[in-house]
Amino acid sequence: MMLFFSDLAKICKKLKRELELISEEKWQLQNHTLIPFPEIHRVPKKHIAEIYAQCCVIFCVRQKILPDLQSKIIANFLDLFWQRMEMCSKKKTLEIRRELASLIEEALNHGKLQRNSMLSETVFLEKIYTEFIRYYNKNQQKLHGIVYTPDYIINFMMRLLHTKIQQHFDLPRGLSSPELILYDPAIGSLSFELGIHNIVKNPDWITTQFPIQFYGNELNYAAYFIGRFLLADSMNFSSKEKEISLQISFQSALTPEFYETIEKLPHTRTKPIIIFGNPPYAVSSANKDAWIYQLMTAYAVKEPNLTRLYDDYVKFIRYGQWLLEKQAQGILVFITNRKYLDGKVFYGMRQSLLKSMSDIYIIDLFGDARNVKGVSTGANVFGIQTGVAISLFFKKNKLDQKTATLHYLGIKNGEEELKEVLAHEIQNLGFVELTPQAPKFLFVPITVEPKYQQIWDIHCTSLPKCFIKTSRAMISSRDRFMIHVDSDPLNENITLLEKRDYITLRKQGRIKQNIDALFENEQVLSHFDFKEMKRSITAVNYRPFDLRHTIFYTINRRCGKSIILDHLNQSPLIIEEILKGKENRNLKNSNLAFNFVQSMQKPPFTHILCTQGIVDSGIFGYSTSKVAPIWIDGNLNLSEIYISKLKYVYPSITENQLIGYLYGILNSTTLASIFEPMLFHEFPRVFISDKAEFIQKIADLGFELILLHTYNFSRFQQHKYEDFYKSWKESLSHDIQLKSWRFEKNAICFTSFQNKAQKSGKTYYNIPCSAKVWNFRIGSIQIIDHWLKARKFSSLQRGLTPPDWHQFFLMVFIIQETLLLKKLIDMELQKNPITMGFASKMN
Question: What SS3 class is residue 519?
Answer without folding.
Answer: coil
